[in-house]
Amino acid sequence: MVRWEPGAGERLRVAALELYVRQGFEQTTVEEIARSVGLTERTFFRYFADKREVLFDPQNLLQEAFLAGVNAAPPTAAPLEMIASALATSAAFFPDDRRNWSRQRQSVIAANPALKERELLKLATLAAAIAEALRARGVAAQAATLAAESGTTVFGVAFTQWIADGEQRSLAAIEHEVLGELAALTTGLATALDRGPA
Amino acid sequence: MVRWEPGAGERLRVAALELYVRQGFEQTTVEEIARSVGLTERTFFRYFADKREVLFDPQNLLQEAFLAGVNAAPPTAAPLEMIASALATSAAFFPDDRRNWSRQRQSVIAANPALKERELLKLATLAAAIAEALRARGVAAQAATLAAESGTTVFGVAFTQWIADGEQRSLAAIEHEVLGELAALTTGLATALDRGPA
DNA sequence: GTCTATAGTGCGATAGAC
DNA sequence: GTCTATCGCACTATAGAC
Fold this sequence. Notes:
Chain A contains ten helices and no strands. Chain A is an all-alpha fold and 198 residues long. The longest helix of chain A has 24 residues, at 113-136.
């Protein structure tokens, strides 16, 4: 008999999502989560900084995929071409068999503003990291920020569509379409701005 | 001698910012803020849902300005032209004499992730409202979301530049420039996507 | 205005593995 | 013995209930 079951963090994660789904985020106490896997509240807080963090990836694997995608683009690529490369790479993190799990997790997040806040912070942190990577590849500071924010926007819109009812396409295919729509939207705006009023 | 000073909410707001600046957000208790203006903790929570909310506009005047700007654009305007109109209208909320106050407030927010989270939620809520207004004017659902998110991105980037050290231009002027840069970034991407790899 | 549940922190104790 | 995961206890502050 071992003194501790292995993988305490992962067990807490699974238990937390299940309880959040069953009875809601606010109706679930940290004590309840911990006890359900034979641990104490104090141990929960050794693994997660707070009650929300248990739903988010602490290793930032998605961020690493995005950065790898940026750096995989050819040196001659325009900023948004690097973003397109990053989106394609990151899509590998969401194969079709994860779609249902993503739907469940997202329904919990959507139901609670506090969780939505945390998700937005993660996305903003991701955008900042991408912008930094673009700057490291020679993109001007402000252009890098704009391109990175546009990238996470496209990712967010595509992800929302990916988990929509009845959606069959892969995340990569949806991302490609959404990025194209963004490009179409801005086409012609530059000239319109020059002739129009401030 | 009046029974109570007018504008309890406003007094709490001023006291909170001052204390957050002086000693930090986490080092300041709600009790401390309330007592400093002769009120109790209980009263603070009658005015603000939580400790962070005291730094944010509860009336969403900025959001109203954005929506008015969207609806002020001519019916023939393209989605991003409606966004340009909204940005121009909203800039009126940040005259030059507010710049220093904005700098102070933003330095507090930047120093605390919890406050950053709340700000991101407000921005996301603003984007959702703008998207809704665009849809009401006939813009397709996904295009409306993309245009609205791009609008808040431009606003955020421009605002950051507006409060940067030494910046002299008006917010409206900076917004115009940033929107132009976004348009330039995406120019040519649509055709590049068609010929490039997925 | 009072009372209470819960989140989250700090520090020390414990009990195994090595 | 050291190292480390976990627990126990005391405590504060937020936030909501009554």
